[in-house]
Design brief:
heterodimer, A: Non-ribosomal Peptide Synthetase Peptidyl Carrier Protein, Chain A, 3 helices, about 0% strand, globular, B: Peroxisomal Thiolase, Chain A, domain 1, Peroxisomal Thiolase, Chain A, domain 1, 2 domains, twelve-stranded mixed beta sheet, two-stranded antiparallel sheet, 16 strands, about 35% helix
């Protein structure tokens, strides 16, 4: 997947799960303050991302520090790169 | 001990007739049936009954996602009905939040559909990795009560009685008692349930579901009718706001009716079979609680689900106490049996008719069963000023419940 495709899949997956407007999916958006997500939503966000990208991230500590949508892009791209290098 | 008086100041309904208390009352008074063929039941092996009274499509997104994510359909119904009841009563947010307003809303079980969806996924590989954080909030037994309290920001007591078909009636009764005893000032009360084939199967397996009207669904159920053949399952939620009388008057609330008595008891003779003596006893107890004689009652809204055993037992019990004098009707013929929601939806509809000076009839009662013929059956909307009504609900599990409601002012 290209970086653009990864970003698009993150955006569409989160928009569908959390009923967000795709136009609001800005890298600088704060997922708590701007999207209104809370700790329950973060649990479900992990499941949505695991389903979309077929990886396991539930135990990743970095997930708990994420606040911006752009940080999700960076995190997912990093995981995909890790997986690619390992294979 | 001087008990406080309790009145109804708001009513909300999500019924097979659609959203709204007015729509419910109109449906009952215009003789409409909300029962239809249910194609979702076609693929269920062994199920003979293929009809249901379902809530039409509604706008669930009127409830913000933050609250809706923890709701299955039954909580959505209860929340929309609860919001309507608060709006109807013109109760402000401060009153909801002062700790003196509580919630008593129950369902038969938590969401069976959510449970089914979870296990369908889980049993594929016995993995919990795909389990959503909100699963528990859909399937917990107090799902409706908690979700309503969260969505409407109600901060007093919370109770979720679960007694199948008696749930809605019990919820109103327990809310009434909490206010009467001074523990709370206002209670949002009622029942809710959502449709699932398992509910139909529960009755079908006991030969208590209607199975002979799949091609003519609006002709069933047929409470007290010679040709009745059982229950038609339904869904929805009826919610009433109860308030302490003096507080309601002080804020200028429009008072719709007064709750004056509640009784519930256990019929331990059989977990499934109705017993007329236990039904009579429940109505006797509720009259005693209300401090009224049977002669004061001028309408009985029956449970009457259109099963042979249940209808005959209730007809005997009503006759034992009231003779042939009191008009009787059941609303199951219009909108089936909404299980935990049935008691509160039917009480709401009876109040709606009472406000119009009418009694809504029993739909599909064409040929009265001779075993039920000793009563004054209401078969067309009847112009009558109801002053005191008794509402019955009798549940599988042996849970009988009755409420006495009086016109206000008396």
């Amino acid at each position: 997947m290209t970086e653009q495709e990864v970003v698009a899949l993150i955006n569409s997956s989160l928009a569908e799960e959390f009923e967000l407007d795709l136009e609001d999916m800005d890298a600088d958006a704060d997922i708590f303050d701007d999207f209104g997500l809370d700790s329950l939503d973060i649990v479900d966000m992990v499941i949505v991302l695991e389903s979309a990208f077929k990886f396991k991230i539930r135990e990743e500590r970095a997930i708990r520090k994420i606040r911006k949508l752009g940080e999700i892009y960076t995190f997912v791209l990093g995981k995909l790169n890790e997986a690619e290098q390992a294979s | 001990m001087q008990l406080r008086r309790v009145v109804v100041t708001g009513i909300g309904a999500v019924s097979p007739f659609g959203c709204g208390f007015e729509r419910l009352t109109e449906g009952l008074l215009t003789g409409r049936s909300a029962v239809a063929y249910c194609s979702a039941l076609e693929s269920v092996g062994g199920l003979r009954s293929q009809i249901a009274a379902l809530v039409p499509t509604l706008d669930a997104k009127a409830i913000p996602r933050k609250f809706r994510r923890s709701m299955s359909a039954m909580s959505i119904y209860a929340t929309l009905a609860g919001q309507e009841a608060l709006t109807h009563a013109r109760l402000d947010d401060a009153a909801c939040q002062d700790g003196r307003t509580g919630v008593v809303i129950g369902s038969t079980v938590g969401s069976t559909l959510t449970t089914e969806e979870f296990f369908t996924d889980y049993l594929a590989d016995h993995s919990l990795e795909r389990m959503k954080s909100t699963l528990f909030f859909h399937i917990m037994n107090h799902s409706c009560a908690s979700n309503v309290a969260q969505a409407l920001d109600i901060r007093g007591r919370l109770l979720a009685p679960s007694a199948a078909c008696s749930t809605g009636c019990q919820a109103i009764g327990y809310g009434f008692e909490m206010i009467a005893f001074g523990k709370q000032d206002r209670m949002l009360c009622g029942g809710a349930d959502e449709f699932h084939p398992l509910t139909v199967a529960t009755f079908d397996v006991m030969h208590a579901a209607s199975i002979n009207f799949n091609a003519t669904p609006t002709q069933t159920p047929r409470p007290f009718d010679r040709d009745r053949d059982g229950v038609v399952c339904a869904e929805g939620s009826g919610i009433l706001l109860l308030e302490e009388l003096e507080l309601a008057k002080a804020r200028g609330a429009k008072i719709l009716a007064e709750i004056v008595g509640f009784a519930t008891l256990t019929d331990s003779s059989n977990i499934a079979n109705p017993n007329p003596a236990a039904m009579t006893e429940c109505m006797r107890l509720v009259l005693a609680d209300a401090g009224l004689e049977a002669a004061a009652v001028d309408y009985v809204n029956a449970h009457a689900t259109a099963t042979e055993q249940g209808d005959i037992a209730e007809a005997q019990a009503i006759h034992e106490l009231f003779g042939a004098r009191v008009p009787v009707s059941s609303f199951k013929g219009h909108m089936g049996h909404a299980m935990a929601a049935s008691g509160s939806l039917e009480l709401a509809g009876a109040v709606g008719a009472m406000q119009r000076g009418l009694i809504a009839p029993t739909l599909n009662l064409e040929h009265i069963d001779p075993a039920c013929a000793q009563l004054d059956h209401v078969r067309q909307p009847r112009e009558t000023q109801v002053n005191v009504m008794v509402k019955n609900n009798f549940a599988l599990g042996g849970v009988n419940s009755s409420i006495v409601l009086r016109r206000y002012p008396a």
